[in-house]
Amino acid sequence: MSEQRDALRRLDAAPGPGTDAAAWATEHREEIRALVARHGALLVRGLDLDGHEHAASVIRGIVGEGMAEREGFAPRDEFGPGVYSSSHWPADQPMCMHHELSYAAEAPRLMVFACVTPPSAGGVTAVADARAVLRDLPEELVERFERHGWVLTRHYNPFVGIGWEDAFGAKNPDEVERYCADHGIEVRWDADGGLRTRQTRPAVLADPESGERCWFNQIAFLNEWTMAPEVREFLIAEFGPDGLPFNTFYGDGSPLDGATVDLINAVYEKHTVREPWRRGDLMVVDNVRMAHSREPYRGEREIVVGLGEPFRP
């Protein structure tokens, strides 16, 4: 089996009809996690996921104590510790390949996606093997990012995206500044109360278990050139080129050009594995080994997401 085909293991109709999905997930937790460790991602089909509360209990059976999200870039609904709705991101806009919270000082090693309501079209949560992506990127590009890391800048304001209060789980600027000081984030406040941050993170990570090198970041997804052109133009017109809600740079502060961002996304596409959602699907993903994305969709779409096993990249 090729590396790409092997990146998403499928386990069809695992539990029998009428089986309690949460009990089944808890009972098979070690088997599930072992398959994820081997393949990078596992798709379980045939579970009875009756609403987000039930889905959340199934997720907790696999991840155990969940990880609270901080520094999110889009709003979510919370269904208990470490369990959330998928990000409220426009349905017609893709969420390009990325590793969850790879810009943060602490990221989840394990992610679980539970499909309560599949979309009528599109909306796939695709995966791509980060080891294969790293191997296929130009050597000089990888070397530059390994040498300097990558920079993420953010502009939290009342008009676009998530506010700093929700992103940091904070009620006042002092709490934000303490968090940022503890996590290596530079802070600057605007006169109108908006917040600007800057952080430098590694772009390549050694898998904590195997030691294999993985392309682990959100360089392309959070870059201005991945935005729809009309969205980018509108935001620059409203807030200026330095006021985008997020943007990424080489670690030395140099800007990325559109061709480089397109190249990174093209390599991701080469290694992308897609499986349309069905009601009751459960996908468990190693967040280091696998990047994931969310494709545009039509209709209702309810995916419950769990974050677990926090680690420091």
UniProtKB/TrEMBL annotation:
Alphabetic keyword roster: Antibiotic biosynthesis, Iron, Oxidoreductase
An example Gene Ontology biological process: antibiotic biosynthetic process
Bias-annotated ranges (Basic and acidic residues): 1-12
One Pfam family in the UniProt entry: TauD
An MF annotation (GO) of this entry: oxidoreductase activity
Domain TauD/TfdA-like: 17-304
SUPFAM superfamilies linked: Clavaminate synthase-like
Region feature Disordered, mapped onto this chain: 1-22
Biased composition (Low complexity): 13-22
InterPro entries from the UniProt entry: AlphaKG_dependent_hydroxylases, TauD-like_sf, TauD/TfdA-like
Cofactor section: Fe(2+)
Domain of life: Bacteria
Protein name per Swiss-Prot or TrEMBL: TauD/TfdA-like domain-containing protein
Source organism (scientific name): Streptomyces malaysiensis
